[in-house]
Design a protein that fits this description.
Layout (H helix, E strand, L loop, with lengths): L1 H9 L3 H41 L2 E5 L12 E2 L2 H8 L4 E16 L2 E10 L1 H4 L9 E4 L9 E5 H7 L6 E7 L5 E12 L4 H4 L2 E5 H8 L4 E2 L1 E6 L5 H11 L5 E2 L3 H4 L1 H38 L2 H9 L4 H36 L2 E2 L2 H9 L5 E2 L5 H18 L1 H9 L2 H6 L2
Parallel strand pairs: 4-9, 6-8
Antiparallel strand pairs: 1-11, 1-12, 2-10, 3-4, 3-7, 3-11, 5-8, 6-9, 7-8, 13-14
């Protein structure tokens, strides 16, 4: 009876009820689409960053992340890599050597970040080799060829086909140098990276550094970026007791993590402000609905209706309005988010060029992850019910005689 009474009450003033439902619908729809695009953009950016070169996580010697050194390298073989690749969540793994050094050409030298990579492994792990815009990549891990950032090549005043000398400190502490021929250039969009990066064949670099069979890190990519922590825990458990750790991209690239967190907090602040505004709008409607029925409520209380029963009716009315509005908002937002997820909005012109220059993908994606829908629905319902406590308290404190005399 209480549920039927609440349902009939909300339709006694159809215009007001429909306007309130539309307010909830708009808030729910707008927030779901906005958050879907925002979280989709975050996920796409993370996917782009980790797949470009860093990897979703890396296997390293304990302490290497805090103090990178060739002394913190470790032995790795095909069997070890196959064990990592056997995890269901892992899509690729690539051994690497990373250190600092110099590249010299005709009396000019520049500081560089040297990366020894295996091209056959990198093709299934990162997209860095697809960024070779001029020339080609070295074809074997033991070649005497290198690929450099296009900005670095310009700063050296060289061109593809030139021979340069790479100088660095080897594993034994002695200076190591070797001649390499530049066969290609990389353009990632990051001026800092393109101005320092040098990719060398892994086995050639190991020989140069006296590090036969050793690497400083193994980059690991995963099937789903939302499962990074789960996959990391599996790998860390398998490597327990070996002195190896598995930092994720958040630890390897803290600046990217901070940028992501800042964007999330900005989005949450916007959500809270909008939901409070919508909540007060709904509160106003509920308060008007309750206040104009004080006379009716006074009569009900006078004939013996329990106070708690009357409050329950008003509360159920609020629940009905919330449910109808959120249901409609979810049903409208879901296909929109699904369509944008399947067909991301691609930016063009100067805006796209600017984003690419900063290393961002010039697209606006979305996502239909259930957690977003649950979070938005819970937030709207929570704020609305919290604000609706005021009219419910007024009904609870209403006295029969005051209610009858209310005008």
């Amino acid at each position: 009876m209480i549920v039927r009474l609440a349902w009939r009450n909300i339709w006694r003033n159809q215009r007001r009820t429909i306007l309130t439902i539309l307010a909830v619908l708009f808030a729910c729809f707008f927030l779901l689409v906005q958050q879907g695009m925002d979280r989709g953009a975050d996920a796409e950016q993370i996917r782009f960053m980790v797949s470009l070169f860093t990897g979703a996580m890396q296997v390293q010697r304990e302490g290497y992340l805090e103090n990178p050194s060739l002394r913190r390298s470790f032995m790795v073989g095909r069997e070890f890599l196959d064990r990592l690749r056997a995890d269901d969540g892992v899509t690729g793994c690539a051994p690497r050597i990373e250190t600092q050094g110099l590249v010299a050409r005709e009396g000019q030298s520049l500081g560089t970040a040297l990366f020894g990579i295996d091209p056959s492994r990198e093709q299934g792990t990162s997209t860095i080799l697809s960024r070779v815009t001029e020339g080609r990549c070295f074809l074997a891990a033991d070649a005497s060829e290198i690929v450099v950032g296009h900005v670095l090549l310009a700063n050296l005043g060289g061109r593809i086909g030139d021979t340069v000398v790479v100088l660095t400190q080897g594993f034994d502490g002695a200076f190591a140098d070797r001649r390499f021929r530049i066969v290609g250039t990389i353009k990632t969009g990051s001026t800092e990276f393109d101005g320092t990066v040098v990719l060398l064949p892994l086995r050639s670099f190991q020989e140069m550094l006296a590090m036969e069979g050793k690497v400083t890190a193994i980059a690991v990519t995963v099937r789903d970026i939302h499962e990074i922590r789960k996959v990391r825990d599996h790998i860390a458990a398998a490597l327990a007791g070996t002195g190896l750790v598995v930092p994720t991209w958040e630890e390897i690239m803290p600046d990217v993590k901070q940028s992501k967190d800042l964007n999330e907090w900005g989005g949450r602040l916007f959500l809270v402000i909008l939901m409070i505004v919508v909540g007060f709008g709904i509160l106003n409607t509920i308060l008007m609905s309750v206040t104009e029925r004080f006379g009716e409520f006074g009569i009900l209380l006078a004939v013996g209706m329990p106070q708690c029963l009357l409050v329950s009716v008003v509360f159920i009315e609020t629940i009905f309005i919330l449910f109808l509005g959120m249901l409609a908002g979810n049903l409208l937002a879901l296909p929109i988010n699904a369509w944008i997820e399947a067909h991301p909005i691609r930016l063009t012109g100067e805006w796209a060029f600017s984003m690419e220059q900063y290393g961002y993908q010039p697209i606006i994606p979305s996502t239909t992850r259930p957690s977003i829908f649950l979070w938005i629905d819970a937030a709207i319902a929570g704020i609305t019910l919290l604000l609706a406590a005021y009219p419910l308290i007024r009904v609870w404190r209403l006295e029969p005689l005051k209610g009858i005399r209310h005008t």
